Amino acid sequence: MLQVSESQVRLGLSAPDKTEAIRIAGRAMVDSGLIDPGYIDSMLGREAVSGTYLGSGIAIPHGLPEARDLVRRTGVVVVQFPQGVDWGGGEPARLVVGIAAKSDEHIAVLQRLTGVLGDPAEAARLGNTSDPRAIMAVLNGEAPTAPVSEPVAVPIDGDSIAVTAPLPHGLHARPATALVEVAKRFRAEIAVRHGGTTANAKSLISLLRLGASGGQPLTVTASGEDAAAALRAIRAAFDAGLDEPVAAAAPTEEPAPRAVPADLDYDGRVIAGISASPGVSTGPVWKFQREELTVAETAPDPAAQHRRLDQALAAAAADLRNLHEEFWKKAGAAKAAIFKAHQELLDDPEMVAEAHALIDRGKSAGWAWRAVYEERAGTLAQLADPLLAGRAADLSDVGRRVLRLLAVVTESVAALPDHPVILLAEDLEPSDTAKLDPAKVLGLCTAGGGATSHTAIIARSLDIPAVVAAGPSVLDLENGRAAILDGDGGVLVADPSERDRGRAAEARVKVGERREAERLDRYKPAITTDGKRVEVAANISDPAEAVQAVEAGGEGVGLMRTEFLFLQRDLPPDEEEQFAAYQTMVRAMNGLPIILRTLDIGGDKNVPYLRMPAEGNPFLGVRGIRLCFEREDLFRTQLRAMLRASVEGPVRIMYPMIAAPAELERAKAITEAVRRELNVPPVELGIMIEVPSAVMMADRLAREVSFFSIGTNDLTQYVLAMDRLHPVLAPQADGLHPAVLRMVERTVDAARRVGIWVGACGGVAGDPAGAVLLSGLGVAELSVAIPAVPSVKARLRAIAMADAERTAREALDCADAAEVRALVRHRFADAGGVS
Fold this sequence. Notes:
- 41% of the residues lie in helices and 17% in strands.
- By secondary structure, it is of the alpha/beta class.
- An 8-stranded mixed β-sheet has the order 10-19-18-12-15-16-17-11. It has an 8-stranded parallel beta barrel with strand order 21-22-23-24-25-26-27-28, surrounded by 7 helices.
- α9 (302-331) crosses α14 (391-403).
- Residues 2-142 form the PTS EIIA type-2 domain.
- InterPro entries: HPr-like (IPR000032), HPr-like_sf (IPR035895), PEP-util_enz_mobile_dom (IPR008279), PEP-utilizing_PTS_enzyme (IPR050499), PEP_util_AS (IPR018274), PEP_util_C (IPR000121), PEP_util_CS (IPR023151), Phosphohistidine_dom_sf (IPR036637).
- It comes from Azospirillum argentinense.
């Protein structure tokens, strides 16, 4: 059993900051023969990724997993800083426990630390003791620590402020997390009162349990030496919206189930819900059931149960990190952020402390953990606000993830059949949905949930048709019963008639035939019936997709997002790594042009080595070309790699988020300086048109570049002042809004006057109606997702450019996006599915 010796305890030290404190602990670990010196840098790297402050004046710095080979043997050292070191956790760290782990032997020591965490008086004593044996006795299990007590409501005696829960959805996960982060910066005890209930402002779950909906009054009380500063910071955070988009009052309830469109005309039994993800599928239904997890209520050895719980929590956290990384690659950072939120739920101090307290009373680790998370999930589920209640599924997901590692007996029940099915469930947890194979799941239909639920978001990202909030009657359907799931209409049709089946089958056949024809003709150019050509290129995000773009019929790459090289890592890519990636893509294009966009990362992405502060509105902050200027070293390195790769083939370089001529002038000057250093031929330079100021200055900007590329996603949200990820406003943030189309028209006119071409690389370019209208407005290149390349080319080959131009002019005079779409649908009803 791992023991802490007197030589591994250092008392009475001081350090000016966290970095030096970690170095001191690291040198002590080297002296104790635990690590090689290089491991200290990994400990600093870990701190940049995620803080290691536990609470009660205790921090546990340790290295990154990839540096494990620098660990000589498993062990810990304890360094005491009686004056405290600011660890960024809201109070100074006085005990710094450096961990070197080749195995899990150190878990026992950490479990004993949990007892200290629950006893602030004991933590204070150890942080100031002059006797190393006092610390050794506790960490070696020779002296009992006070049992972890039940969470106690934070006292509300002290100064108070009145605030309002942020609109539109109140203290749900994101704003509550923002509040916790602010509260933890202060030593004061901070409480939030809503009605007759009080919550610990430093506990995410405690805040969620308040059930505070948007616009409801809250009272924040703080007591302690920095209480006044804490209240000022919290008021500022509330005024800034707590990471919520500032908006007018919006509905806090899920939208009511939509009426079934009359033209669907189903004969079978229609169960109405809410459309969560588009598409229509036909097949047998199957009820989804998770495994049954059985745990003993009591256990004879509390110490062993404490270890089991800590080990399960650590393993679940690692699993969530891996799941986040895998899903980030599959569906992007925004969708993967769900699993980041789950890590925060898992790390809730009150929930962990209460589970350990139950273990101290003789309960098993599994029983204690299940009791705690089920009680909290049940409380959340009863909240009146649907968005807040929806977080119960997230907490249950996190809880079961840990429980699977603690269960004595695990019985798998109702496994999915080998054939594809329409999946029915009371609700699906995000990790369940993320792991679904679209080839085996025809669609999803849940009794609960809502259009703003994480499950709905993930279903859309995986292109699985889904209907949610269909009510409990959907679970009465027997496994194998025939059904049609209409994700567009928001209904499930049980026992469809032969006519229903026939219409669905006919629709699928037509779609299949059309897609096969498009595949066969994918290398044909997109030339309209009256002889006008539009280039169709592909958007890609990594080297492997370059080959896929060519095989899909792409006539080049209209947008290469270089961010993949910079995300999910601790250090930036060097020039050689970038050059190898760009060179691979250029060669794969085999002479076709490729547009490489320089780095576009903002404050909404967590990139530790950039040291970017969190921003209240990252989409209006340091991102795109602004970041390149802030980190000119990274910008120059990237430009060197791009320009070196340009020797291999036709490379164009594009700058993102240009808002003014001065920015373009500076970017070009830096690029030219780098080019001269390398002595390579010039390349075509272009800019993204993403902000209204770039449109208004397009006549000036056009004289300085070879091309424009319109980023319709960002341009739409900036023009309409609507976050395209907002749960309420997102459906209205449509790139075919006449205001956006007028911006496109103005951009094309400015480009034409000086003889440069304009492309479009946002989502609208791959939209059936969007491809027609952008072409009609004079956009010469459409860059779309790889799977959409054949269909966009086929669509353009089926229309006359003259008709597209006339329709685009009429669209500019429409009132809204819905009217625009209706116009295009009517005008091109026979043009291959334009809608």
